[in-house]
């Protein structure tokens, strides 16, 4: 189901989180649960992975993760502010130690000059107060490839915070 690179990263994330006795959750929009899927594809992941939020709509981001309506209105669903609010919301609502959030425009449509297809914002947060953000502009390389690269970036961010 997952390619070798994604599988290797998933194993490393699980090992790092397990060593810290951390639980993690994902908050995903454009990837639709692929990060949670990559992690749970690994046998034994249940001692680390608590849950995954798939919040494709703005309503879901607000009700499931507590993303403020004002954040979405001012910055849009695909923004640093929304990704960070998603990560912090997942941390608070799941009661875990580590989260990652992804929001973006995978395409083929839906982009604009300001927010083109391939734009992805990712954020990861920990209960010890660390919060990191990455903005990726993958370009119009195809929906599947944008999503795959976003999953790899999300796993790298989890690994960075758990290591």
Plain-language structure description:
The protein is an alpha/beta fold. Helices cover 45% and strands 20% of the residues. The protein has a five-stranded mixed β-sheet, sandwiched between helices. Helix 1 runs parallel beside helix 6 (143-162). The radius of gyration is 14 Å and the shape is globular. The model has no long low-confidence stretch (mean pLDDT 97).
Annotation keywords:
163 residues, alpha/beta, 20% strand, 5-stranded mixed sheet, 5 strands
Strand and helix layout:
Elements lengths: L3 H17 L3 E5 L5 H7 L8 E6 L3 H8 L3 H7 L4 H15 L3 E7 L14 E8 L4 E7 L5 H20 L1
Parallel strand pairs: 1-2, 1-3
Antiparallel strand pairs: 3-4, 4-5
Helix pairs in contact: 1-6
Briefly say what this structure is:
This protein has 163 residues and is α/β, with parallel strands linked by helices. The chain has helices at 4-20, 34-40, 58-65, 69-75, 80-94, 143-162, and strands at residues 24-28, 49-54, 98-104, 119-126, 131-137.
């Amino acid at each position: 189901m997952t390619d070798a690179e994604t599988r290797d990263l998933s194993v490393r994330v699980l090992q790092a989180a397990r060593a810290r006795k951390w639980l993690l959750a994902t908050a995903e929009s454009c990837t639709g649960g692929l990060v949670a899927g990559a992690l749970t594809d690994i046998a034994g992941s249940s001692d680390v992975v608590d849950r995954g939020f798939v919040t494709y709509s703005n309503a879901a981001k607000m009700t499931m993760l507590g993303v403020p309506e004002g954040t979405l209105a001012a910055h849009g669903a695909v923004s640093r502010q929304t990704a960070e609010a998603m990560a912090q919301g997942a941390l608070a609502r799941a009661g875990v130690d580590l989260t990652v959030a992804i929001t973006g425009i995978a395409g083929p449509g839906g982009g604009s000059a300001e927010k083109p297809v391939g734009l992805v914002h990712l954020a990861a947060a920990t209960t010890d107060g660390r919060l990191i953000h990455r903005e990726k502009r993958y370009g119009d390389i195809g929906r599947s490839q944008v999503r795959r690269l976003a999953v790899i970036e999300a796993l790298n961010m989890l690994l960075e915070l758990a290591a």
